[in-house]
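Data availability excerpt. The first of two example chains:
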Amino acid sequence: MEENFKMVAKTLFGFEELLSKELTQLGAQDIKAGVRNVAFSGDKGFMYKANLGLRTAVKILKPIHTFTVSSEQDLYDKIYAMDWSQYLKPTGTLAVDATIHSDLFTHSLYIAQKTKDAIVDKFRDTTGKRPNVDLKFPDLKINVHIDRRQCTISLDSSGDSLHKRGYKMATNIAPINEVLAAGLIMLSGWDGQTDFMDPMCGSGTMLIEAAMIACNIPPNLMRKEFAFERWQDWDVELFEKIEESLLGKTRDFHHKIIGYDKAPSAVSKAKDNVKNAQLEDFIEVKHEDFFKTQKGGDEKLHMVFNPPYGERLNIDMQEFYASIGDTLKQNYPGTDAWFITSNLDALKHVGLRPSRKIHLFNAKLEARLVKYVMYEGSKKGKYMK
């Protein structure tokens, strides 16, 4: 039996609860939510499963050593004292990144450099050979986290951020991050039991994430590589078994996922990405201006979108957000509409009262995810709830 060990899944602000729930459903133990991260326990197979199956995780770290640190020399000495031979060959390659929350240390690049020096010097002193740095495809990616005087050294099991799912070949100006898109859809409570629409779909991220949620498809199946595949204890048979068990849990989806965009280039990119994700059976992308559309049929519709904001496009924000409100009110009865915006002033111009507001960040911008409920049978839009 593989032994359990502690891991930390990093996430975006506001997604800690979602990630905890995902970890519970996957079968993690000792789950404890922090800020932008969730700690948990599991074995090696579970580490593979977490990387393949979590929608709202950005990274899965495996802490291997924690100690207090009083100076740069102290950091160097304690890292030098560790047994690195169990993780890396003397001729291997490594990369180090650091995050610092401390008045003692202020420069994360310098701390990363100091860590790398200690590891390389240890190998050179004990074997006569030294590992090289490879920032793109290292055999071992190491994360140093210093919080005040507490230092945690972790192995990064993911490598590239887990938002890089592998299906997105084409993007528009400012594509939404895949982890953010999945989290927004999950926060909106969509469960695949109604039609789904993104009326400003850009390169199709929201549509693809919605389809993967509806069909319970593991989000990172298409990734080219995880960092743990270069580890000394990499177990390809175990990985394939985990992959197979996750694929066995996919389910049918009997509704429609529809995307609109008024830019032909965005429609073409979205279609390419949907095809890359092999989800053409579930997603339809059309060249439409949302403000000139109306809902087809009486079925309930679930809408989640990311309207363009001032930094991206030269548009009249007041008019644009007023048009969103008018279109929803007049043309989309029986719709739960959710969208994220970083333009908090513009929300006042929607002309509808949101039934929910959730505080998030879109990249570094403070944002709100808002919900508007458009009831059936009223052109005036009874949007109170």
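And the second chain:
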Amino acid sequence: MKTKITAEKDSPIVVGLDIGTTKICVTVGRRSGASKIEILGVGKAESSGVSRGVVANIQKTVNSIMQAVEEASGQSNVDIKVVNVGIAGQHIKSIQHRGILTRRDDNEISRMDIERLIEDMYKLVLPPGEEIIHVLPQEFTIDNEPGIKDPIGMAGRRMEANFHIISGHVSAIKNIKKCIDNASLEVQDLILEPLASSEAVLDEADKDAGVVLVDIGGGTTDVAIFHEGIIRHTAVIPLGGNIVTEDIKQGCSVLRNQAELLKIRFGSALADENKENEVICVPGLRGREPKEISVKNLAYIIQARMEEIIEHVYYEIKSSGYENKLIGGIVITGGGAQLKHLVQLVEYITGIDCRVGFPNEHLAKNEVLPKNIYDELKSPLYATGIGLLIKGIQTEEEQAEMNEKHSTPISVKDITEKGYKEKGFFKWFKDIIKDGNEIDDETYLGKK
């Protein structure tokens, strides 16, 4: 059973769970009075059971989840039971599909009509072993009138819509859910990670102008392209920051933890920005001399791999057909976005304007968390975790709005207003049910 602990402002507390390749992050928060997100607690644990965005070891992943949940629960004083979970990995695919709904009358189109169209999309036959994760409506066509973004309230009989459908491997989805179950948690929603990150670092103006979100994580690089406020293309590239660390480890003949430190502290995506005579001294193994590594050579190693990742991203941009419609340019986020000179390299390869996306726009001033933790949350590293929180809050608010809209029973005096006398009982009854309303016993029994 879902446990809700609400704030003074009656805003539900929501939890996001980012199961990444390098870290597992739990964020606890709620909507603040200023329509921003107030973070109540954060938990972080090293992710040792995930490879390239996919669960590779159930028990190790469960242990990391429980560790992160315990830390976030202790900080926020919230008993965490329900989580919004991110999903990524090379298995993620996206397709475009068109749906058609012929309505029985030309009354106003309601949310229920759109939900019926979306439900139809979930019935699509996919290749064996695949499952639909998201069905995202794009433009609608009402009675042959195209290009409608929000048809609710319009009149029309024939409703058509283009959908962006995202699917993933059943086994990968089941493994995530098994980890959540084993950690004594419940999945509220499964959310594609680039969609979550986009909520944290992009605003409506970015999405309307046309923008590419590139989330460079440890195991994968996630791409989402938006235009005219609508998601147009998604992709997951199976390369990320960890492969750069492996290259440094091999190229410089150092330990993995040393390679990671070299990347974070001295790494650069452009070798020409570094001086020839800059040298780093790395401690040698027991009984061996320290090793000297040129900063410029380190940058050459990093640049070669980052160029490959950016080329993959650029291929996705070109194949989407939106290369010349990206007024908002490219926004890079995730842990990999912290690499020095990466913005310049992206602009050099793609010829498209680029900036780093920070999730701090949506964060309310915080008096609950220690200042160092709150400042750390503003890093691109937490874009997905905060985005999952925002998506979870949006879902809660939409659900509350739907419940409020359809929870008022219809009384006897409403019958004439609903057209009972003119339509007859069965036509009236059908219309009431179709609108998602409940009928109280007095009304139903009185007229039956």
